[in-house]
Amino acid sequence: MRAKTRTAILISGRGSNMVAIAKTAQAQTDYPANIALVISNRPEAAGLYKADAMRIPALAIDHKDFETREDFENELHAALLAHEIEFVVCAGFMRVLTAGFVEKWQNRIINIHPSLLPKYKGLNTHARAIAAKDKEHGCTVHWVSEGVDEGGIIEQARLNILPGDTADSLAERLLPLEQALYPKALIKALNTNIIDS
Ligand code: GRF
Questions:
Q1: In a structure prediction context, what are the per-residue pLDDT tens digits for the chain, which is 197 residues long?
Q2: Is 153 exposed, middle or buried (0-12, 13-18, 19+ CB in 10 A)?
Q3: Is residue 138 part of a domain?
Q4: Residue 170 domain-assigned (yes or no)
């Protein structure tokens, strides 16, 4: 049997998607990823404590400690290598990654975005979907590429926008769909990755 892929999850805050993936990985003996590290670019991120409680090595690399984006990413890359990480999952990680970093992790880094990509790349996705009078909304797990929110789509989940929905109510109803989708999409990404590499 193939060894589990040593996977790091990058977060910036609450970390509920990280917890969903880590719980699935810990509960399912045949899950293909071992969540071996959680890194937050914000030291105060609640997700760090949640990772700690799940006995996952968790560390903060504060982007504010670095003069340039590249310096921050060099530290991030070094930490990933030091923990022998093979695959990176961005889950609510609110830093744009440079082309240089993305290239180092090409085909080994994925992200979740709260919209039905290619619609609404960037921020405020829920408000933008409502303002556009869209009938449905959703989330997308995609490969991380040089362009923000532009990499190939791995999986999507969708929901109907209801009359009276606000950005907050939509975000709240979408979150459980994200948490259900991401552990499944990670399996698919790892399988695709094996076929491609
Ligand atoms: C999620 O909605 C994700 O799609 C977005 O940020 C949120 C992160 O939530 N990029 P959490 O930190 O996983 O709870």
A1: 469 999 999 999 999 999 999 999 999 999 999 999 999 999 999 999 999 999 999 999 999 999 999 999 999 999 999 999 999 999 999 999 999 999 999 999 999 999 999 999 999 999 999 999 999 999 999 999 998 889 999 999 999 999 999 999 999 999 999 999 999 999 999 998 654 44
A2: middle
A3: no
A4: no
- Catalytic residue set: 113
**Is 166 within 8 Å of 130 (Cβ atoms)?**
yes
| Ligand 1 binding pocket mutation candidate from 128, 148, 149, 175 (most atoms within 8 A of CB) | 175
Closest CA to 91 of 44, 4, 22: 22
Ligand 1 atom with the smallest distance to the CA of 174 is: 2
Placement of tokens 């969708």 in the chain: 158
Q: What is the CATH number of the domain that holds 30?
A: 3.40.50.170
Q: Which residues line ligand 1 (CB under 6 A)?
A: 11, 13-18, 91-92, 112-114, 139, 175, 178
127: which 2 tokens?
């408000």
Q: Which residue, by CA, sits nearest to atom 3 of ligand 1?
A: 92
Structural domain boundaries, residue 67: 5-112+143-153+178-192
The answer to the question of residue 132 being in a domain is no
What's the structural domain count of the chain? 1
- The verdict on residue 166 lying in a domain is no
User: Which atom of ligand 1 lies at the shortest distance from residue 19's CA?
Assistant: 13
